[in-house]
Specification:
The chain is α/β, with parallel strands linked by helices. Helix content is 32%, strand content 24%. The protein has 14 helices and 20 strands. The strands form 4 sheets. Strands 9-8-7-10-11-14-13 form a 7-stranded mixed beta sheet. A 6-stranded mixed beta sheet has the order 17-16-15-18-19-20. The protein has a 4-stranded antiparallel beta sheet with strand order 3-4-5-12, covered by helices on one side. A hairpin with a 5-residue loop joins strand 4 and strand 5. The longest helix has 21 residues. Bound molecules: ligand JHZ and zinc ion. The site of zinc ion (ZN) has 8 residues, from loops.
Length: 416
């Protein structure tokens, strides 16, 4: 049920999960460039592709989703710049998850752990260290090669139902399947979940992390909306999705990572625990399972955009210099929807060396190493990677001691 606009994207007419036709748009950003498509100095001579960015709610299954599907080859396969291992907080969070599962599930050399979207091996390397068999699957060649270098066997491919069948036919069944920050990225949502169901042992568990839609709305984290993120999950919508494929969401945990995420424990056997029942009841009582909850979000987003723009323009008119921290995908949404160009922000810094000497999509702010903050000592730094605020403030103690200030854009712009 897709209408083909051109080879690079399609506009969905039906819900990505249940296939129903009752999807209603509640937020509209117009057309924006791709958030992780950083530009090289030769790219900036040419116009960039832009795609509609519009968020809708499905009245049938409660799934929040964008309506445009950009060809995943364009989004993820070539020169994908995201490497998980640049964040010590994420590494720590991932290691704790692996250690917990090794203990709780009594994993050993006979076990098999598979990760979908294994990136640079940031998570699986913990199992390798413990002598447990692993397989990483990731379509991005740079991160996949980096994973191989740290000893994580990785298959450079998109995970699909077909790949699951192929692996199963080769005798592979997993005790644990990890899928962090990938379920929302997959165009064939049902195929991906069906693939998990095929690849899991009968007593296996899929441990899945995804940003949670409630903090997105409550803390106005609108910048986490971009074309890579097709879905914005509630537990209500997830429960329906998994059940369709004979899987059961049995346990859920709340995580602070990425502005508020869920960790889902999904199994072939139904054993729904209190955490899931309570979360479903919470969502029903808050109305997260109905469109009404989302109706005024667009007004809140507009107010934040206006306040941030006013703040930056006021500082600039007072003669301040402003840089930004974090060439994050969410940073691209922020600068492109608010309209933060070179007239306001001189450059963006980032620790990821693969992003240096490139330019942010759309507004084309140049990306430099984090050392540039002490070299230039701008008066203000707009924190695009606000989800790592504690970590970044610690790391930038020297910049702050010299009088530098950070501007945190969400939930409401503030200077610290
Ligand atoms: P970060 C990514 O989004 C990519 P992004 C992806 N689309 C996704 O789903 C989400 O994560 C969950 C840098 N940094 O991770 C690293 C420093 O420079 O919040 C990153 O470039 N110094 C798959 O890109 C950026 O900031 C630091 O100390 O919005 C953060 O991007 C730290 C901690 C990070 O996600
Ligand atoms: Zn639906």
């Amino acid at each position: 049920d897709m209408m083909c606009l051109d080879a690079n994207s399609v506009t969905e007419r039906a819900c990505r999960s249940c296939g129903g036709s009752g999807i209603e748009t509640f937020l509209e950003f117009g057309k924006t460039p791709l958030a992780d498509r950083l530009l090289t100095s030769s790219d900036i001579a040419e116009p960039e592709p832009i795609f509609p960015l519009r968020v809708a709610f499905c009245k049938d299954c409660s799934l929040v989703q964008i309506t445009e599907t950009v060809n995943p080859i364009i989004l993820f396969a070539d020169s994908y710049p995201y490497y998980s291992s640049f964040s010590p907080a994420l590494l720590k969070h991932s290691r704790a998850n692996a250690v917990d599962l090794i203990n709780r599930r009594g994993l050993g050399p006979e076990s098999l752990v598979i990760e979908l979207a294994s990136n640079d091996g940031y998570l699986l390397k913990n199992y390798v260290e413990a002598g447990i068999r692993v397989l990483g699957i990731d379509p991005a060649d740079g991160p996949a090669a980096a994973a191989e270098r740290v000893g994580v066997p990785t298959r450079c491919a998109f995970f699909t139902r077909d790949l699951a069948e192929t692996l199963r036919a080769q005798g592979m069944r997993a005790d644990i399947i990890h899928a962090n920050n990938v379920l929302a990225h997959v165009a064939d949502t049902n195929g991906f979940v069906a693939g998990i169901a095929r690849l899991l042992k009968d007593d296996g568990v899929a441990v899945i992390e995804a940003p949670y839609v409630e903090p997105l709305i409550e803390h106005c984290e609108f910048d986490t909306i971009y074309h890579e993120h097709l879905c914005y999950f509630s537990v209500t919508a997830l429960d329906k999705l998994f059940r369709r494929h004979g899987l059961y969401l049995n346990e859920v945990k709340h995580l602070s990572i990425h502005g508020g995420s869920l960790r889902l424990y999904v199994e072939p056997r139904e054993n729904v625990g209190a955490t899931v029942k309570e979360q479903l009841a919470h969502e029903a009582s808050r109305g997260i399972d109905a469109i009404g909850y989302f109706r005024d979000f667009s007004t809140k987003v507009d107010a934040l955009k206006r306040d941030l723009s006013t703040l930056l323009r006021r500082l600039k008119s007072q003669g301040a210099t402003i840089a930004a921290y974090g060439a994050a995908a969410k940073g691209a949404t922020l600068i492109n929807t608010v309209g933060i160009g070179r007239d306001l922000v001189d450059f963006v810094v980032d620790r990821n060396v693969y992003k240096h000497n490139k330019y942010m999509p759309g507004q084309r702010l140049p990306i430099r190493s984090t050392e540039a903050l002490l070299e230039v000592q701008p008066d203000y730094v707009l924190l695009l990677a606000w989800n790592f605020v504690d970590e970044i403030l610690d790391q930038q103690a020297e910049y702050r001691a010299r009088g530098g200030k950070f501007i945190v854009p969400v939930p409401t712009p503030r200077i610290i």
